[in-house]
Write a structure and sequence with these properties.
The structure is a single chain. The protein is of the alpha+beta class. The chain has three domains: 19-266, no CATH class; 352-550, no CATH class; 555-608, Orthogonal Bundle (Type 1 dockerin domain), CATH 1.10.1330.10. The chain is built from 18 helices and 24 strands. The strands form nine sheets. Strands 14, 15, 18, 23 and 24 form a five-stranded antiparallel sheet that branches. Strands 6-5-7 form a three-stranded antiparallel sheet, with no helix packed on it. A hairpin with a 6-residue loop joins strand 1 and strand 2. Helix 11 (317-326) packs antiparallel against helix 12 (335-351) and helix 17 (567-575) runs antiparallel to helix 18 (594-602). The protein is globular and about 80 Å long.
């Protein structure tokens, strides 16, 4: 088995910026076909529809036995996994993506609505044909019928030999939802003694990060990496020439970020920060996102001390909010379980970062420490951001200066005054020529072929060369190998006595929500999403960490904190000339230059 051959790259559109899409019913900028999004693994028609049951069929054994916190069913139902097929944000994103790239929804649904590859509705890339079975999300039976696509002698179940042999093409990598399902629907799990009323095959695969990497490493399979490190569009109507996600334009690299971190390579003792009742050393995705507890995985089953809770808590508490709002009257949606899931997501966010603050003369150094096993933030690149808010108070505890002010009424962040950790993508000259869109920063993620910015904080074990080779480089910032924190300096105004520093997380920005609304010419999801956003506090930021810091008296311009502004401070400023993010940036304009020299000379001789 293996990949079929694909031909050369380079979308050829004959200079036309808009062409009629085939199979989607709207105009798309790029006339791709479903062949452009073909991948190895289970295909439509490989698994009989009745072989993978709805999650409702799991309730009898895996729920309702007076342990809602630990039973598999209810936590799953309150997670994004359980409601992935009902996500308004996803459907709004897919609508605009289909308008840009014909049929790309066929690829998108492979992760978000995977049962559509069993029912066959993925062949309609618009998502309009999805069934109730599809809306079951990333369902119980679906995950528990997954097979490791890379057979491991002595580790993989022997039944997998026949399953893999029956595929037309066997995946060689984890990612892009190149999942393999057991066509007989035989369930797999981590235990060797399940005593279940159905076939239950022990599977080491379900305890590995690779299992999660199936969907949590995503590249644009129509945009390939070139020998010089840039990216270019593939030829139309051709499958990707290389299924290795590292060779494709990065849309999500969570699995890769973890795989190259210290967590995946020996584990990290986090002192109980993650892992629930399990060991303090965490290494796999499951250790953090499926924390261990003591309980039963099924009614009447054995009590286990290493039961993996099906919390799947991530960062998108707000998405659970809008799903609960939109489906409040849908009996298939458990609003109370979603509320619990939201609380777990906030708890996860509050454990994902640590905050340290130190005063250096007339400035404070804010250190944001990434405590996770991947970049901070990670996941889907559009909209997500982490930023630092600083409020400085003077006499009478009056607010005298603020960096990163957020207007909750307007859902507007003063971006120029602070540091935002995020990823932005853009269009090269070649991509702009092919699509008729402007060069540079873009909101058209499905068309992007350049990384304009990625200053997200790396995890423990970060190495620049390895991350760049895997398609997860740092762009627009500098992190040394091994660095899993970011230091940002903020100037203090005269008379400052206290600083309140907050690290904030936000799933979506106002600009992004309005772009999804205004750019949608296909269906209602753009307007629906915007309405839900307004009804849920406009996706307000969630505080991850807060530090209320008392300030010592200082002399403005005293860079070495010796109590006087003199030649020693001048030497420090000149030594920092043209540097960014430096305490010698007295003007807070982002770089040390003439304005700062003038300010220091103006304060010359000042002392305590």
């Amino acid at each position: 088995m293996g990949r079929r051959c694909a031909r050369s790259r380079g979308w050829v559109l004959g200079g036309a910026a808009v062409v009629v899409a085939a199979g989607v019913g709207v105009a798309a900028l790029v006339p791709t076909t479903l062949e452009d999004f073909h991948l190895s693994g289970t295909q439509i028609g490989d698994v009989p529809i009745n072989m993978i049951g709805d999650s409702s069929g799991c309730v009898g054994c895996h729920s309702h036995y007076n342990d809602e916190d630990n039973e598999p069913y209810r936590p799953w139902k309150g997670s994004l996994m359980g409601v992935a097929g009902r996500d308004p944000l996803f459907f709004a994103q897919m609508a605009t993506a289909n308008q840009d790239v014909n049929g790309v929804g066929y690829f998108c649904m492979r992760c978000h609505v995977p049962m559509s590859y069993v029912t066959g509705t993925a062949s309609d890339p618009s998502g309009e044909s999805l069934t109730q079975t599809d809306l079951d999300g990333v369902s119980c039976h679906f995950c528990h019928s997954m097979v490791d696509p890379i057979y491991k002698e002595g580790v993989s179940p022997p039944e997998d030999v026949g399953v893999l042999a029956g595929l037309a093409e066997t995946p060689e990598y984890y990612g892009n939802a190149m999942f393999v399902l057991d066509p007989l629907g035989r369930r797999r799990g981590p235990y060797s003694d399940p005593a279940a009323p159905h076939v239950a095959i022990p599977s080491a695969f379900h305890e590995t990060g690779a299992f999660c990497g199936t969907c949590h490493d995503v590249g644009n399979i129509a945009v390939a990496k070139q020998a010089n490190g840039t990216y270019r569009y593939n030829m139309i109507d051709m499958a990707t020439p290389d299924e290795n996600p590292a060779t494709q334009f990065p849309l999500e690299r969570t699995y890769t970020e973890w795989k190259l971190s210290s967590f995946a390579n020996g584990g990290v003792d986090m002192g109980g920060r993650f892992g629930g009742a399990g060991p303090t050393t965490v290494s796999t995705c499951q250790d953090c996102h499926m924390p261990q507890a003591t309980g039963q995985g099924a009614a009447g089953g054995p009590v286990r001390t290493d039961l993996a809770r099906h919390d799947f808590a991530g960062a998108s508490a707000w998405v659970l909010d809008i799903i609960a709002k939109h489906y409040a009257d849908d009996p298939a949606v458990d609003v109370a379980a979603l509320a619990d899931g939201r609380d777990k997501a906030i708890s996860m966010l509050q454990r994902a970062a640590s905050l340290e603050v130190a005063q250096i003369g007339g400035a404070i150094k804010v250190r944001v420490i990434n405590e996770t096993g991947h970049k901070l933030p990670t996941g889907h690149i559009e909209g997500r951001r982490v930023w630092i808010g600083v409020k400085i108070y003077g006499a009478g505890d009056v607010l005298v200066k603020e960096y990163g002010h957020y207007d909750f009424d307007e859902a507007h962040l003063d971006e120029e005054s602070t540091t935002i950790f995020e990823m932005h993508v853009g269009l090269s000259e070649d991509a702009a020529s092919a699509t008729g869109l402007p060069v540079g920063l873009t909101g058209h993620m499905a068309l992007a072929d350049t990384i304009e910015k990625d200053n997200r904080i790396p995890p423990r074990g970060f190495a620049n060369a390895a991350y760049e080779a895997a398609g997860a480089p740092v762009v627009g910032a500098q992190y040394s190998d091994g660095q899993h924190w970011a230091d940002v300096y903020y100037q203090l105004p005269p008379g400052a006595g206290r600083a309140e520093v907050t690290v904030n997380y936000q799933t979506v920005t106002r600009h992004y929500i309005e772009a999804l609304r205004d750019g949608n010419t296909t269906n209602h999801w753009g307007n629906t999403l915007h309405d839900l956003w307004e009804q849920t506090n406009k996706g307000a930021p969630i505080p991850m960490a807060i530090n209320d810091f008392s300030l010592a008296p200082f002399v403005y311009g005293d860079l070495n904190s010796d109590g006087i502004v003199n030649a020693f401070d001048l030497a420090l400023l000149l030594g920092a000339w043209a540097q960014t993010n430096n305490p010698a940036d007295l003007s807070s304009n982002g770089i040390v230059r003439a304005e700062d020299l003038a300010l220091l000379l103006g304060a010359w001789g000042s002392s305590k």
